[in-house]
Design goal:
This protein is mainly α. It contains 20 helices and no strands. The longest helix has 54 residues, at 370-423. It is globular.
Amino acid sequence: MNLNKNTYQTILKATAIFGGVQVSSIIISIIRSKFLAILIGPSGYGIFSLLNSTIELIRTLTGFGLETSGVKKIVEAKATKNNQLLIENTSLLVRLGIITGIAGTTISIILSPLLSKFSFGNAEMTVAFLLISISILFKQITSSNNAIFQGLSELKLLAKSNLYGNVFGLLFTLPFYYYFHIKAIVPSIILTSFIHFIISFFYFKKLSLKKVKIENIDSIRKGKEILFFGGLLTISSFLPLLSNYLIQIFINKLSGLEVVGVFSVGLIIINSYVGIVFNAMSTEYYPRLVKEISNKEKLIESINKQAIFTLLLITPIIILFLWWMPFIIKILFSTSFLNVIPFITWAIVAMIFKSVSWSFGMVIIAKADAKLFIKTALIFNTIYLLLCYFGYAFYGLEGLGLAFLLYFFIHLIGVLIVVKWQYEISLSNRLFILLLKSISITGLALLAFYLDRFWIKNGMFLFALILGFILFYNEIGNQFSVISSFKKYLNKRGK
């Protein structure tokens, strides 16, 4: 495959913008996590995680995937260069965000007693669920605004909205935790969602978009395409959340809230701190795939380049986390969470496989092939749930980590088979070779993790890290000057 440097530059630019935001968000998250670890402990984290997971389940189920289907609708309208259609679609998406948010909040209020009993085994958290139900409305409106930012390629506004939402969310909620400890969990969840909503609304106003008045009934009628596609995607998005939620319930019944808190911390590290790569790049990657969906040759090239970039970028990150894991957990949380290490050790290596399967799997969404997405999601999440169930039942947290590793390997094989069979898209020889090299380098770091001799252990980690950086530079750095690109970006930011 003839690698063109323009695609890498596009990916790097988006990664630089959102990577910077993600790093800032991670710093904020580190501060928040550190305070929460001290102020509410593992048990408090367990309560916080179950409340958040339950509300997110309701929001996902009632949200009709607007953050994904909405982006597609805006990108398509923008491509027609029909300004009136674009205005109508943005107004429609805002209205749908309000309607679905109200629906989610109402359902959560009605189901509060059941949610409390199912999540915690009693009705004591009914009032908590009643109160935090309003956060669904705030989050859903924020999601529809974010979809418009993304669809219009207003990535800087989206980045600022996310960044300042995290900053002010931290500043306003930490005093609650400091003075009220576990009792601060509910008001902090509400306040955080409200702050994100206010800041998102502020930056949305900067778009200066004209409004088209749409009645609620007309919104549903005109937005049936968005709702249908989003509804199908919702089922798929709902399944991973449901799987993790059920795993938390299972752990709670088997081992208690403290272990739920530890597992939740592991998910935060995997999905937020290591997952910075996916979060930073998905904002630019998905709209780009939608634009290139009709050009098969360009689409295949773009998917392979994205997979290569993601794979080579995440490899050194994995090595660093394996190397400094105990230190990182102590800094991010506290010594009370060190027993999460057996889980993270294996789960973090699984990100090698996820980096490729994520890049290829996104094409199913870009093609709006929701039925295929649902079928694959049902199969994959069933496998995931069974692996995690038996992994934890037999080997505890380390078994969960091994389940993650095995699952993402199966997921990669499955996704490659599906996209080859359905779209005739396959990974390039270059990507296959780089994947094998990344697996070998990560395997070396994993071996070093289990060694006891200080100098041999750290020497192997350093050697693996150098190999990871060399692999990245030889593949990506040869296409253009990485340092020069970052300097240009920083100079622009400084003006």
